[in-house]
Amino acid sequence: MMICPVCGHAAHTRSSQQISSDTKERYNQCQNINCGATFVSHETVTRFISKPQLIERVEPHGIQGSLEL
User: Fold this and answer.
1) pLDDT tens-digit series, residues 15-62
2) Are 23 and 42 within 8 A, CB to CB?
3) Which of the pair, 60 or 63, is modelled with greater confidence?
4) Does some domain include residue 52?
5) What is the pLDDT of residue 64?
6) For 26, which of 4, 15, 16, 67 could close a Cys bridge (C-beta 3.0–4.6 Å)?
7) What is the DSSP secondary structure assignment for residue 1, as one 8-state letter?
8) End-to-end Cα distance, the chain
9) Is 29 in contact with 1 (CB distance < 8 Å)?
10) What is the span of the domain harbouring residue 2?
11) How many domains does one find in the chain?
């Protein structure tokens, strides 16, 4: 959700498309019935707070044999 730049009410995303690996273009519509503005916004990754380290691959459970209880 974004704030409508025209009236300040909530605006919801109606559709979107990936522009690049870190940017998405969103088509938004104001939810205020007296405004109804539609506008385009871009959502972009600007920085990471944390990144995963190298992850070791493990086999899924139950592949090597059946479980016995």
Assistant:
1) 999 999 999 999 999 999 999 999 999 999 999 898 888 778 888 887
2) yes
3) 60
4) no
5) 58
6) 16
7) -
8) 49
9) no
10) 1-28
11) 1
Give 2-69 as a DSSP string.
Answer: EE-TTT-SEEEEEEEEEEETTEEEEEEEE--TTT--EEEEEEE----S---------PPTTSSS----
Q: Are 3 and 10 in contact (CB under 8 A)?
A: yes
Residue 63 pLDDT level (bands cut at 50, 70, 90): low
CA distance 3 to 34: 15
Structure tokens at 63: 């592949």
Name the residue among 51, 45, 38 with its Cα closest to residue 5: 38
Query: Could you tell me if residue 34 is inside a domain?
Result: no
In a domain, 24, yes or no: yes
5 found inside a domain: yes
